[in-house]
Amino acid sequence: EIKDKQNEFNDLRNIKNKMSVMKKFKVMVLFMLAGFVIQAQDRPAPSSMEDRMKRTMEVMQKEVQPNDKQAKDMEAAIKTFFTEAEKLRGDGPPPAPGQMDPQRKEAMDKLAKLRDEAIKQTLSADQFKKYETTMASMRQRRSGGKPGEAPPQKQ
């Protein structure tokens, strides 16, 4: 009878140990899932073209202070840039900074140059300097750096 009680006690202890292992396994799986969820949230969904236009123009109004005609011309140039850039991107998400294929990057650079040339024609020299500084700052924030720092390089 003592042997039976001992075996019963050992069986209970084995069940308890198995349950402890299962609890640890469940906790580990939960942490892994939480890690995946956090990682998936690192890149926010791209905002709509209208939202980007609105934010860009708000910043430009504040920093560059264009008159009404200049603001209208800037808005047209920026809208053309965003529209054409969206066509180049297609349906997929935008690539991570520094990971755009060379042909697409060349096309985007050409669009940016056309936008900047159109804006340069409408602004004074001082305003255009402010515009360039503001655009550089906005690009820097978008790529995750601080204004004045070099953008992060891919490894």
Number of helices in the DSSP assignment: 5
Strand segment tally: 0
Uncertain ranges? 146-155
Task: Report the biggest beta sheet as strand number plus sense, adding barrel if it closes.
Answer: none
Radius of gyration in whole Å, from Cα? 28 Å
Gross geometry: rod-shaped
How many angstroms does the end-to-end distance come to?
69 Å
Fold and architecture overview:
- With about 160 residues, this protein is an all-alpha fold.
- The chain is about 75% helix and about 0% strand.
- It contains 5 helices and no strands.
- The longest helix is centred in the N-terminal third of the chain and has 39 residues.
- The radius of gyration is 28 Å and the shape is rod-shaped.
Tell me the layout of helices and strands.
Layout (H helix, E strand, L loop, with lengths): L1 H39 L8 H15 L4 H22 L12 H21 L2 H18 L13
Helix pairs in contact: 2-3, 3-4
